[in-house]
Amino acid sequence: MAKIVQTAGRNALGEFAPDFARYNDDILFGEIWNNTALTPKQRSMIVISIFMGRGLCDSSLDHHLGFAKENGVTKDEIASLITQGAFYAGWPVAWAVFNRAKAVWADAENSADSAIECPHITQTAGRNALGEFAPDFARYNDDILFGEIWNDTALAPKTRSMIVISIFMGRGLCDSSLDHHLDFAKENGVTEEEIASLITQGAFYAGWPVAWAVFNRAKAVWAK
Hints:
- By secondary structure, the chain is mostly helical.
- The protein contains 12 helices and no strands.
């Protein structure tokens, strides 16, 4: 893996905010992005997912979309990430990200051989909890979000779990539904080292208080 070198902090804020510039260039990019617990491709997906969770669709997102493409995220993969993200971050956010992603991947072709073989995921939680009270929502949850999106082979379930946890961090959601997705991430093959690295990276993009809250829940899941 080629070492990632960043100078944007010092270039833009070296005189105005030298401490922030150093943390940006030397810590966030110099250490976190070069930590081999996760690949640069995975880290790009994590950051874009956090941006979706926060509803941030500005020039910094454009930078990270371009960086994701450089790090090997394909047109199929980014489209699948944003589609999944729509269910967790909302349709308006997904539309905004799609409009920017289309420009970045405008010259890219679909990856005909990108399908990943995965065990089929079946979900009944929607119908179990809300089948009578909100049958349409229950059907969309079980048949569409899990039945179709989570079983879309453009991304592995492990990657999808990382995407969802990152969106939760972006939204600052640390409730029982996060516990479910942390458990699901572990089932899908996310290791203790990987989840720790994901949350550490997420701290810089979603904030330290959110990271502490997620760490407290993740520790309990991986202690089992």
